Amino acid sequence: MTEKVGTQLPDVVLYEGDAQTKLNLRELFAGKKFKEAGADIIVCVATNDPFVMKAWGAAHNVDSKVRMLSDMDCALTDALGVAMQALGCKRSRRFSAVIQDNQIKAWNLEEGGGMACSLSNPTLEQLKAL
Fold first, then answer.
1. Over 70: is that where the pLDDT of 35 sits?
2. Reported pTM
3. Which phi-psi region, left, alpha or beta, contains residue 11 (left: φ > 0; alpha: ψ -120 to 50)?
């Protein structure tokens, strides 16, 4: 899916580590550029609360390699149009994106609950191709 390519990131607040540590997503990605087919920043966003995201990151030893951010208010999920209902709760469909200075350069939205296009290898290839 490419419908988001070329659009700007929404101006939303996410949380890191706890419910008081707020991050503006556009500020986080502002001025970020590509580096030799690598990335300045890698972010994992989920609709879980920030405490769960912090624990999930610790359990997988992400250290400072991946920013584990909470979209507990579903602001990003709603703004990107990727909301779904699961077990009676609003959740986010699985997606990945390559962002350059707040513009979506590559967009991958999983269809039917699978895990293929949003995995790290296809996303890294898109990053290298840009």
1. no
2. 0.86
3. beta
